[in-house]
Amino acid sequence: MPSAxxxxxxxxxxxxxxxDRRPPVVEVVVPVHDEQAALPGSIRRLHEHxxxxxxxxxxxxxxxxxxxxxxxxxxxxxxxxxxxxxVVRLDEKGRGRALRAAWxxxxxxxxxxxxxxxxxxxxxLLPLVAPLVSGHSDLAIGSRLATxxxxxxxxxxELISRAYxxxxxxxxxxxxxxxxxxxxxxxxxxxxxxxxxxxxxxWFFDTELLVLAQRQxxxxxxxxxxxxxxxxxxxxxxxxxxxxxxxxxxxxxxxxITRFLAIGVVSTLAYALLYLLLRxxxxxxxxxxxxxxxxxxxxxxxxxxxxxxxxxRRHLARHHxxxxxxxxxxxxxxxxxxxxxxxxDRAPARVVELAVLVGAxxxxxxxxxxxxxxxVFAHPEARARAxxxxxxxxxxxxxxxx
Length: 402
Prior knowledge:
The structure is a single chain. This protein starts with a strand and ends with a helix. Strand 3, helix 2 (71-81) and strand 4 form a beta-alpha-beta unit. By secondary structure, it is α/β, with parallel strands linked by helices. The model is unreliable at 1-20 and 380-402 (pLDDT under 50). The protein has helices spanning 39-53, 71-81, 95-105, 125-134, 155-172, 188-194, 205-215, 237-253, 256-282, 284-307, 316-344, 350-376, 380-387, 395-399; strands at residues 4-7, 26-32, 58-65, 85-90, 110-114, 139-143, 150-152, 183-187, 220-224, 226-228. The strands form two sheets. An eight-stranded mixed beta sheet has the order 1-4-3-2-5-8-6-9, with helices on both faces. The chain has a two-stranded parallel ribbon with strand order 7-10. It has two domains: 13-254, Spore Coat Polysaccharide Biosynthesis Protein SpsA, Chain A, CATH 3.90.550.10; 256-386, no CATH class. The longest helix is centred in the last third of the chain and has 29 residues, at 316-344. Helix 5 packs parallel to helix 8 (237-253), helix 9 runs antiparallel to helix 10 and helix 11 (316-344) packs antiparallel against helix 12.
């Protein structure tokens, strides 16, 4: 991680001053790069909103991404002038890098960020963080594409945004509607768990964080926002789009279904080889069951370890017992296909026999994935989270920090 230095204001927004002050409930991070002109107005506007219309203890953190203009000096002047404003300086660019540095070092309960242009109406901030403060949700995102949003922007950006989110839905089965809106929040405990898994340091950081959260069964709350496009935006749309597509391909390659299919191919090849070796001495029916049994345990264990990322011995026996039930289904499908083949042709060629069995195994694979995904390994992280207390603070308790 690049080096970073932080400068603190005398005290945090709405938090008690002095050595006994407690951490804020909400920390708002504003990543910036060469924003000397926009920064003062935006931070003062955000500071005023938090001071007058926000019920939780808060802090603003300006993260400067290797600016080459006067942004660092402007940010430090704001921190000196406004209570509750801090500055972090990074030596490298990247929105993801900025958020990772700020969120990792934060002591707040809820971590959020917004773009420096404040394109999103600040009245959406409380609806964004409230479900996280209460413990109802794990992440929250502002959505320009959700029902109830009000967006003002050009047709080019509108088309790119909708096309990108459609790609996410088709390729990664994303259930959230707007991955790139610069208005998001996350519970601190969830951030500490997800951040080590996120590889991107730039614009794709948001998408990767959300996809990983969805894969782990975490709750993502969406808030329709009023959003006005910043005509002075300097984002390179072509380069950003290309980087995002590379990120989508990387996540697709590591998706559970991709890992499952890879394991399935290896298992099928092992099954076919064992069947051919056992068929002469045991007969078709017994060889089929024996080959399936020999590969079933390894298949379940491989999917446990690599597809669904389950570690340790906890629930190991139960997972294999449930895997055995799925194995029975596979035996029934392949044995049935074999029986139909022998009814049609009492002495089929070995290659035809094997082709029918492999075809039946492929059909069984679909049922196997559904069973493993939604029964055997049904979001172990989500079950563990649901079993533990999640509430961070009620509004009344959070008010005590003010």
